[in-house]
Amino acid sequence: MTKSLNTDYFFDEAAYNTHDGGYVPLAEPKAPQQALRIPPLLKPYKETATDTYYTVEAQAGETQLLPGKKTKTWGYNTSLLGQTLVFAQGKTMHINLKNSLPELTTFHWHGLNVPGPYTDGGCHAPVYPGQTRHIDFKVDQPAATLWLHAHPCPSTAEQVWKGLAALALVTDDHEAQLPLPHTYAYGVDDVPLILQDRRFHEDNQWDYEADYDPDGVQGPTPLINGTVNPYFDVTTQRLRLRLLDGANRREWRLHFSHDLPFTQVASDGGLLPEPVAFTHLMLTCAERAEIIVDFGDVTPGETVTLYSDDVPLVRFRVHEFTPDTAVLPEHLVEIPNPDVTPDMPIRKVVMSGMDETVMMDGKKFGMQRIDAKQQVGNVELWDVTNTNDMDGGMVHPFHMHGTQFLVVSRNGHAPYPNEHGFKDTVGVNPGETVRLKVWFDHTGVYMYHCHIIEHEDGGMMAQIEVFDPQHPQTYKLMDMATLMKAVAEERGIAVKDLHLAGMSSYEKMGMEM
Ligand code: C2O
Ligand code: CU
Ligand code: CU
User: Fold this and answer.
1) Is residue 154 classed as helix, strand or coil in its secondary structure?
2) Is residue 389 predicted with pLDDT exceeding 80?
3) Is the pLDDT of residue 421 over 60?
4) DSSP single-letter state for residue 124
5) Listing from the earlier edge strand, what are the strands of the sheet with 396-400?
6) Long-range contact list for 405-408, CB < 8 A, 24+ apart?
7) Which positions ≥6 away from 435 have C-beta within 8 Å?
8) Residue 184: its pLDDT value, please?
9) Is the CB of 401 under 6 A from ligand 1?
10) What is the rounded distance in angstroms from the CA atom of residue 270 to the CA atom of residue 272?
11) How far is it, in rounded angstroms, from Cα 490 to Cα 355?
12) Helix (H) or strand (E) run with residue 174 in it
């Protein structure tokens, strides 16, 4: 099937988060093992052959994560994380976005090709407490594992930390016909793994402020689909794992016990052109990978453990299964590779700094400032550079809203073997320039940023207007004064007493949002 087995993490070892001054190592939880939670599928409140109707409600609640006191958490249609949405390609989605939280939030569809900035749900699409916003869009992209998360700058990181992250799975007929494990279904042989980490404080509570780090908040306890110390009962020979790095800052260096090989079949934006075999896989923030694990050589009764570095994340308890002889085709999907629009200069984007000094193109994010423009449908090259090479530097995961791009090269060399499909997030090593091929199908204002969420809140973010010269548009962009006033009112405090985490990065640099 696949030619060679990759045994490497590919990213620059010197830049791994393990070398950060503020690195918080993972530790194996002491809590008893428990069954992996599977985020339930969200039931549409109405469905026709062409249209699907959902209500997504952001809510506060409590979740039993550890023995003893429940943890105060936030989630979508549940107390933590969210119910999984399914978007069938070609269908039109109608979604009520209901905010039952005590503060304003936004609903961002990470990886979804929809118009910006309102449907896309970045910081310009606030939904105030007690209110509901409605969006409609036609699903127009190949099958993929996408996600929904809160995006109210500069509180994105805190809201995601509290639990506002859910999965959105795009499905299509082509993917459904491939011999991928999905015969038995979601939660059985098609299993999402949302990888996060938290620190539990007194009474099992999370405390974002106490753990705050401008380079990204971390905790020592792995939290997988909102489960501490999970096991999963394997009842099929092959398992499809939809991995999402849903952590604020953590990189995951994944491998199984005995270096059991696995096959990656999809990345952020859907299927890879060809399956790629690995024993080790590193994910940076917001990246997704779909992998097929084959337990054919494992004796029922044994356990196979998924690790990050040397800490166990999930124990797969292998039970009797029916032999599965399905073989993946050598070619999974055709990835379009349009020509660059003639005479377009190469766009340069620079991510610089660490801690509070983080910037994009030498500036911090300004909500009302448009930093770049690109014509809808144009195909352009973007050179995204991470200049930060101090102390080995760090990997900045570069993410774009509103599109799935192609990775052309890394410092002029071929991208990593699993970067030949569509992506919306790419880890950029220190001192590296990653060349992307970028085009947009929809007009709008879209953000692009580092997906270490505290870097994004701290200003390593910019925005682009995608325009159609035939149909010029104006957008109502959120501004800091409106945001501050709203949040201060929600909290019952004066604006001058309000402090949102990302603001400290601006203050330290003497800059305004
Ligand atoms: Cu995952 Cu600006 O988004
Ligand atoms: Cu996004
Ligand atoms: Cu960063």
Assistant:
1) coil
2) no
3) yes
4) T
5) 372-375, 461-467, 444-450, 396-400, 425-428
6) 405/436, 405/437, 405/438, 405/439, 406/335, 406/337, 406/436, 406/437, 407/434, 407/435, 407/436, 408/381, 408/435, 408/436, 408/437
7) 346, 381, 382, 383, 384, 407, 408, 409, 410
8) 62
9) yes
10) 7
11) 29
12) helix 173-177
Q: Are 361 and 395 in contact (CB under 8 A)?
A: no
Query: Which amino acid residue places its CA nearest to atom 3 of ligand 1?
Result: 110
pLDDT at 65: 98
**Ligand 1 touching residue 364 (CB < 6 A):** no
d(CA 494, CA 154): 18
Q: Is 242 helix (H, G, I), strand (E, B) or coil?
A: strand
Ligand 1 and 240: CB distance under 6 A? no
pLDDT of residue 3: 64
Which ligand lies nearest to the CA atom of residue 505 in the structure?
3
Indicate whether 182 pLDDT > 50.
yes
Measured CA to CA, the distance from residue 452 to residue 374 in angstroms comes to 25
Cross-strand bridge partners of residue 306: 256, 314
Residue 370: burial class (beta carbons within 10 Å; 0-12, 13-18, 19+): middle
Model confidence pTM above 0.90: yes
Q: How far is the CA of 131 from the centre of ligand 3 (A)?
A: 33
Ligand closest to CA 397: 3
Dist. CA 365 → ligand 2 center (Å)? 15
Q: How far is the CA of 404 from the centre of ligand 2 (A)?
A: 10
C-beta of 124 in contact with ligand 1 (< 6 A): no
8 Å CB contact between 232 and 315 = yes
Cα 395 to ligand 3 centroid, rounded to whole Å: 7
Residue appearing with tokens 């409590």? 62
Cα–Cα distance, 449 to 366 (Å, whole number)? 12
The reply to whether ligand 1 has any atom less than 6 angstroms from the CB of 151 is yes
Distance of CA 443 to the CA centre of its chain: 22
Q: Which ligand is nearest to the CA of 15?
A: 3
Tens digits of per-residue pLDDT, 221-275? Answer: 999 999 999 999 999 999 999 999 999 999 999 999 999 999 999 999 999 999 9
The Cβ of residue 447 has, within 10 Å, a number of other Cβ atoms equal to 26
User: How far apart are the CA of 347 and the centre of ligand 2, in A?
Assistant: 20
Q: Is the pLDDT of residue 125 over 70?
A: yes
Residue 381 near residue 347 (C-beta atoms within 8 A) = yes
